[in-house]
Amino acid sequence: MKEKWSFFTIGLLSGILAAALVMAALERRADSSGSGARVLKLAHNLESSHPVHAGMEFMKKRIEELSGGRLRIDIYSGGALGSETKCIEQLQNGSLDMAKASSAQLGMFVPQFQTLALPYLFRDHGHYWRVLDSKVGDKFLSFARAKNMYGLCFYDAGSRSFYTTKKPIRTPGDLSGMKIRVMNSRTDMETIDALGASPTPISSGETYTSMAQGVVDGAENNIPTYYLSGHCEVAKYFTEDEHSSIPDVLVISQKTWNDLPQEDRQIILKAARESSKFQRQLWEKFESEARGALAKKGVEFIVPDKSLFAEKTRRVYDSRKGTESGALVDEIRAVE
Description:
Elements: H1 2-28, E1 38-43, H2 51-66, E2 71-76, H3 84-93, E3 98-102, H4 103-106, H5 125-132, H6 135-143, E4 149-155, E5 160-164, E6 179-182, H7 186-194, E7 198-201, H8 207-212, E8 218-221, H9 223-228, E9 237-244, E10 248-253, H10 254-259, H11 262-296, E11 300-302, H12 306-312, H13 314-318, H14 324-334
Parallel strand pairs: 1-2, 1-3, 6-7, 9-11
Antiparallel strand pairs: 3-10, 4-10, 5-8, 5-9
Helix pairs in contact: 2-11
């Protein structure tokens, strides 16, 4: 009898523990104020003053308005929850609800997104947004579903150009023998290699120190990030070759998405798409202001002949002929 009672007690305690764990999980998703709001965590690695962060703040406000406070978004900026790679991994296992990632970084998990990181892919910035706002853009967002994520929208991340510490880059030949910090992206590394430099993957948080200590001779990024990260303090030459225009992507965990009622999904999708349009207007204004601030800091802007750089990157496309990526390039270039 004593033994039976022990087994009964163990079973009862196990049941209580399981129930407690379920309740704890539910409570983690609820507002600590007791309002019962569903709280979604969103993480990214940019500064809170960045225009992409402002776009997500706009989305947060709209979601909370449209849901009548039923949904709440908590945004963790500056890599508080880990690098973009770590955040994507958390999305996939369901421990994080939402994240912003560069298409290049997302491409490590969803290969099709690497196509958006190809050099000189878009004819101009107008073409860039016509593609991303079209069915082709929706097609790219849908690719994330195969990897336990759901693509919500694109954010403007401008064009990436070189900035260096010791000498300016005026032609591709000037890159010869230089070590350039890049994202951990196969396409990004191929592009920099084709242009004659040595691509060196380093995390965004270590880029400033790496340039200051001479580990690398420079890096490549857009103007707002170059300014806000403080990289302009150690790399005073900015060459506007604009070798790639890689959009940021807002994604949500498939686990979270599946757990939301249809009404809440539509609210999130609507707010995300609205925030994309809001953010791209902010980007243009902020980039102009950042350019002015950089000039006052003594940054030298170099405007090279982009055709020389584009010609050197042709081999990056040659290796994709006859592949899915090559077909996606054709679809992008077919957009008027």
